[in-house]
TrEMBL record:
Residues 2-166 form the Transketolase-like pyrimidine-binding domain. CDD domains: TPP_PYR_DXS_TK_like. One of its GO terms (molecular function) is magnesium ion binding. InterPro entries: PDH/Transketolase (IPR051157), THDP-binding (IPR029061), Transketo_C/PFOR_II (IPR009014), Transketolase-like_Pyr-bd (IPR005475), Transketolase_C (IPR033248). Coiled coil: none annotated. It comes from the Bacteria. It comes from Streptomyces pacificus. This is Transketolase.
């Protein structure tokens, strides 16, 4: 199976051929994969080198001319380093584009903390009118990219090396109900889905699958919860608690408790491997089972 990044390269190469409005802006990352596209569309594939602030500025400028920019690099260099440009050159100017990241929270630990971005979605939450997609499989990444490409809105697509075994029929809006139960609701975001399913095996819980987290599917959570009182667990592959406020807003008139599971704020300085980071943050199946079970109590067991 190809990775999400590989699928992004092949899908965007086809989209550039299909849509003359589409333009791609790179900062060296993935430039080799896009070499054929650059030869075919030299005026719409732009590599600015390792100049991430310029990359965002060029993307915003292309949007002002009527093009649809796809801007791509590691998450830490796409959102954190050039955040002022994202805020001003897209948001303040009122133009749209598609920001596509790789690296996720700790996909390449050997690259060090400079290449980790567990706070990317929380940071983007400080701005308005951004759609955020977190696919959990290459098929979903392609579907969500194709959904984003023709629009005029602002979209962030967060790709990861971590992938579920198979893709789901995502629509870019609603959460999918994968399992129904009576003792709580667990929302699994993107690549956390397989781990959540393994962790909740035998538990009497509803599992929702989320690949589009902004806008947050408040109606889907309300349907899953019913009239309450309710316990909701959100398992996200980035900063723990990023979506707990969204759950609280969705259930403002329903008695409820929320547990946000994700990457801890504490920096892990022994970089190791991605799997070791998942375990260290309690995001492997064993860690999730213990934390979800303790939160939901004895009633969660079938």
């Amino acid at each position: 199976m190809d990775t999400m990044r590989e699928r992004f390269i092949s899908s965007t190469t086809r989209l550039l051929a299909e849509d003359p409005r589409l333009a791609l802006v790179l900062a060296d990352i993935s430039a080799e994969g896009f070499r054929p596209a650059a030869r075919a569309h030299p005026d719409r594939v732009i590599n600015v080198g390792i100049r991430e602030q310029l990359m965002i500025g060029v993307g915003g400028g292309l949007a002002l001319t009527g093009l649809r920019p796809v801007v791509h690099t590691f998450a830490s260099f796409l959102l954190e380093r050039p955040f002022e440009q994202v805020k001003l050159d897209f948001g303040h100017q009122g133009v749209g584009g598609v920001l596509v990241s790789v690296g996720a929270s700790y996909d390449w630990p050997a690259g060090g903390f400079t290449h980790m971005a567990p706070g990317d979605v929380a940071l983007l939450d400080t701005l308005d009118d951004w759609t955020v997609h977190v696919p959990g499989h290459p098929d979903e990444a392609e579907a969500l990219l194709r959904r984003a490409a023709p629009g005029d809105d602002r979209v962030y697509v967060r790709l990861s090396l971590q992938s579920n075994e198979h893709g789901w029929p995502v629509d870019g809006a609603r959460f999918l109900t994968v399992r129904e139960g009576r003792s709580g609701v667990v929302v699994a975001v993107g690549p956390m889905m397989d781990h959540v399913m393994a962790a909740t095996e035998g538990m009497d819980v509803t599992v929702l699958y989320a690949t589009t987290v902004r806008p947050f599917d408040a109606a889907g959570v309300r349907r899953a919860v019913g009239h309450g009182p309710a316990d909701v667990v959100v398992v996200e592959p980035y900063l723990a608690g990023t979506s707990t406020a969204a759950v609280n807003d969705a259930l403002a008139d329903v008695p409820h408790r929320v547990l946000g599971l994700g990457v801890a704020r504490r920096e892990i300085r022994r970089y190791g491997r991605m799997e070791e980071h998942l375990a260290a943050h309690g995001l492997d199946p064993a860690g999730l089972r213990g934390r979800i079970g303790r939160f939901l109590g004895a009633g969660a067991s079938r």
